[in-house]
Amino acid sequence: MRIGDAAAAVGTTPRALRFYEQRGLLPPPPRTRSGQRDYGPRELAVLRVIRELLALGLTVEDLRGVAGRLPLLAVHPVPRCGTAAADRGGPGVVGEAVVERRIAALDTEIERLTRLRDGLRAGLSAQRGGDRPRRSTAR
């Protein structure tokens, strides 16, 4: 399957596939006689894993350190939360350290954004003279 078809099959662009290959997340796929990338079922399975992990909030840099293990997730997917297999725990293929670092980075970013929001809210309140009721932040 050519790069455009492979990209469409996993919900991304050909440019993203080339980027994953350049960054070491995806081994270079076999080439046709004319030199075009030829993606097969194994490559598509790894691409789906990459896309799913990125959608969960991991970064390309997070995945670079475990790129060699990504094909394992394609063969043995991580069980979904709430299933008996997921409840057993364990470090998983991606690795606890990678996930813990990403969670810490997200917590730091949430704290930064919370301070920014609170500062903006305080500035707006001061500009209004503090006489308007504050909107609830509960959603």
From TrEMBL:
Keyword match Ion transport: no
Alphabetical keyword list: DNA-binding
Cited InterPro entries: DNA-bd_dom_put_sf, MerR-type_HTH_dom, MerR_fam
Gene3D superfamilies: 1.10.1660.10
Domain HTH merR-type: start-end pairs: 1-69
Protein origin, superkingdom: Bacteria
Span of the signal peptide: none
PANTHER family cross-referenced by the UniProt entry: HTH MERR-TYPE DOMAIN-CONTAINING PROTEIN, REDOX-CYCLING DRUG-SENSING TRANSCRIPTIONAL ACTIVATOR SOXR
Protein name as it appears in the record: MerR family transcriptional regulator
Species in which this protein is naturally found: Streptomyces achromogenes
